[in-house]
Amino acid sequence: MSEASRDSTHLTGMADEEFTTCNDPTLPEPMGDAHRPRFPSLDRKRTRDDMPSYSSDPPVFSSDDLPPGLENYDSHRTKRQYRGRWWENRISCGQSNNPGPVRKKREFKRNIDSAVWMGSDETETTDDGDIDFEAEAENKLLPLESVLQLGFGLRPEEVAQKDAARVVQELVDDGCEVIDLSGRALGEIQNSTLKPLHYLTVQENNYFPPSQEAYRPLTPRISLYISNNNLEELPGEIYRLQNLVDLSPRQNSLTTILPSILNLTNLESLNLSANNLRHLPWEILILARRGKLVSMAFHPNPFITPLPVKPGLALPEGYGRFFPNTSRQVASTSIAYLDITGRLCRGSSPNPAVTKKYIPSTRGQPSSIPRPWMDNPAKTPSLFELALRACSASPDLCQIIHLLPKDAAPHLWHTLKWAQDLGEGGGQLCSVCLKPFVMPRTVWVEWWDGLGSGHLPFLKRGCSWACVSKPDDVPKEWTNCGWTEAAE
Fold first, then answer.
1. 323 pLDDT tier (thresholds 50, 70, 90)
2. CA distance 288 to 272
């Protein structure tokens, strides 16, 4: 090696030594065991002095207590220790022998609204072994009794109403003229159930052109059978069925028939037997004498019978057959005069539509009692009567009744309910002047014979104190007679 190369190698080694010496950091001297820091044991939970012992925010005020759900790490907590197998849950000695509430076994309950099988709130398992899904699939259509037992929230009356509405709609769709709702335990029939009958059209099933003799109008002849139910009154929609020819509400609990039955001009057959009727409306006699009504059945019913002023008198024997042209009046009660609200006036005879029994007195009434109906028998309607006529024609009368205050006069409830019933049925006409009205001012009963059912009581109503009738062919002993209910 030459001398120049040795010099260059010596210079390079010196440069590397100087660079290494300048860049290395100065290391501290090793410490002994006495100066080594001690760390806490890791077998316990660390606590920090600057943090609270609970895991949530501290109370806002110093008087506030900690919520019961927060964990407090300061107090000593004791774990519950068990001995033996874990599934036996036997508590070791020295601890409380109260394992806590025992959970009930899961019971499957079916939520009918959602059609989903769900357990109770305390359910922990999901065992479906108690459910027979095959039986459920086979019994998709449940009978009426099963529907009620499963608790669908419908009362038996509501189920019967829905079933009646379904039957009527199906018969109307099929064009059937015979509507049979007998024996369905109906406590009432809603007007909406019978409204589809207004749109009933006869449907011919002949696929070939009929002969000339077979042509007939397609106007239906409706027959309505609603017997063997629990009806206390007929719905107002029945009195609006102009094409009704046969009506049979027998074996019910009817107490009155509205005068609106006069609207059934095509009625040919009427069966009102086995009810609780004390009298019949005068309008039925008009249908029998001037209309198409030829077949009638009224017995048995607890009709009132006349009592003469002089005891011992007997009514004349009836015809025994139905002769519309020869029917005659055999007796009548005294006329009862009412005020504008329908209450009996002082000094008037009893109202036969309300009073069950009345025995006339031979002494008569004292002359000191004022009788305004004899002094001023005007036919002018009162303002209250005009207001009732407007309410009867209003479709919102039902809402008006519910809006009455609790301290309203008692007669307002009765008069508005009567106006609502008449409005739904088509109203009523005065038995004397044939004018429309709502609240009667005169009421009396007349017994007529010749309808094939003995002596029948017919209730008449007048629109004013001047609307009264006194036939001339009835003896005086039977013009102001009393009455009593017949023993059926």
1. very low
2. 14
